[in-house]
Amino acid sequence: MHSEVVASRNTDSSSRTGTGSSPTIDAVSLAIIEQLQQDGRRPYAAIGKAVGLSEAAVRQRVQKLLDQGVMQIVAVTDPLTVGFRRQAMVGINVEGDLDPVADALTAMAECEYVVMTAGSFDLMVEVVCEDDDHLLDVINKRIRTLPGVRSTESFVYLKLKKQTYMWGTR
Questions:
Q1: Considering Cα of 152, then 126, then 106, then 116, what sign does the dihedral take?
Q2: What radius of gyration do the chain's Cα atoms show?
Q3: Model-level pTM greater than 0.85?
Q4: Rounded to whole angstroms, what are the CA distances from 22 to 17, 74, 92, 134?
Q5: Do residues 100 and 148 lie in contact, with contact meaning Cβ atoms separated by under 8 Å?
Q6: Which of 118, 117, 139 is nearest to 128 (CA)?
Q7: SS (H, E, C) the chain
Q8: Nearest C-alpha neighbor of 115 from the set 150, 90, 141
């Protein structure tokens, strides 16, 4: 298990800022994010030295970035080592408005990633489950029964080769 900074992708920008626009992030804040992506437990004093700020200034900026929903500092685990033996990506086609279905999926603890897409599916959902029976229950009894869900296609993970949140700040 290790800590990483993860760019927040669980809400749209209007719910984070209340203005409908994304927060403005300057070069120093981007440098702080990059430092934390390398090591989410890096001391603020060390970050300050790297970016040219005091420890207190780094602490304030990190808190602001967290409050704005720009990033999260989380422990990223290997699901297999903590009791989740089955992962799948589920493609979902929806009749009508996507938002109610996406909101219902977002509320499910097993759905770790919910995204509206263009292409073959309206929504893509990453599901993390304890085992095959749990996955079947989530797909068959909870996702497929949601009003508006027309069809699903499951892509069961056989082996996770890479999982990283180190895309930087570009």
A1: negative
A2: 19
A3: no
A4: 7, 22, 28, 37
A5: yes
A6: 139
A7: CEEEEEECCCCCHHHHHCCCCCCCCCHHHHHHHHHHHHCCCCCHHHHHHHHCCCHHHHHHHHHHHHHCCCEEEEEECCHHHHCCCEEEEEEEEECCCHHHHHHHHHCCCCEEEEEECCCCCCEEEEEEECCHHHHHHHHHHHHCCCCCEEEEEEEECCCCCCCCCCCCCC
A8: 90
- Residue linked to tokens 């060390």: 46
* Residue that is written with structure tokens 């999982």 in the block: 163
Residue 92 CB neighbours (<10 A):
26
Burial class (CB in 10 A: 0-12, 13-18, 19+), 33: buried
pLDDT score of 21 more than 70 = no
Q: Which residue has the tokens 């990223």?
A: 76
Q: What is the pLDDT of residues 75-102, one digit of tens each?
A: 877 777 888 899 999 999 999 999 999 9
C-alpha span between 37 and 1 (Å, rounded): 14
- The C-alpha atoms of residue 77 and residue 59 are separated, in whole angstroms, by 25
pLDDT at position 76: 79
Cβ-based neighbour number of residue 28 at 10 Å: 14
